[in-house]
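Amino Acid Chain and Its Fold in Token Form
===========================================
What this section holds: a protein sequence and its matching fold, both as plain text.
Structure line: whole-number tokens from a learned vocabulary of local backbone shapes, matched to residues.
Purpose: to set a sequence beside its fold so the mapping can be learned.
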Amino acid sequence: FGVDEPEEQRVGCYVAEGLEHEGGVERGAVLLLECFGELPFGPLGTRHPGDAVFQVLVRLFIRGEVDALDELDEMEAVGRDDQAGHVALVLQGEGGFLEGRRDGLAVAEVAEVAALAGYEVRLLDIEQARLEDAVERIRNHLERRVGKGTLSDAEVRAALERIATSTDYGVFADCQLVIEAATENEQVKRAVLAELIQHVPADALIATNTSSISITRLAASTDRPQRFIGMHFMNPVPAMKLVELIRGIATDEATFRAIRAITEKLGKTAVTAEDFPAFIVNRILLPMINEAVYT
């Protein structure tokens, strides 16, 4: 986009008018969000006024400094280079989530997708038998894909070699990302997260795979709410492209960009959801199911 386009000119006029009456660049930036929506670095209204990106956007849209667009492009490129391709994916299957229920397959399926994408995966659960069952599920599914001609034997071997299992949280000591995927019970997830933060690096990112629980509340169970985010995979994970990314109230933009880059490397399509009950997919799906049941 550019400031010479008619839509952006109208936005600039609107924000300038708002500044004249509201008094302050920061307020003008919020007005910009209201009439322009999503920007390259996410909603402007989620950024802090002291943020370097915020200041560049203010220069571009409010002060009309067209040169700021080049600076914005450079900052976005640096952000991608810093975040993509340097994250070790770790999966958490605490709380019996690897049992034989349909939703219990999600942990193994996310591990499978991550390993195929080239990530080193460390899969943790409360019992070794469950971990062995998860790896066997992954192996069986990958071998079926070999039979269909969509994977080679070499790709399967390489993916399986990237998956390590453990029942000890200490295996997470050098990890950069943890995806917690405990059973859909807030108290169980809180207990898992409270234990987890004692074993991961201080700068590690934490994501939770949940379909409905508040990301903000779960983030409060950790020591890093700014580096905590929701990452809701759809079942079956290997086949379904959509992943809902949900910011908590404190999730920072660097965390969001990093998780979005990882989601894309997994071959998935990321969609941003607000931290409301059931997010997007289930907020639409469940009322439809209820309507069908009572029709």
Remarks:
- The mean pLDDT is 75.
- The CA atoms of residues 207 and 229 lie 5 Å apart.
- DSSP finds eleven helices and eight strands in the chain.
- The first helix runs from residue 6 to 22.
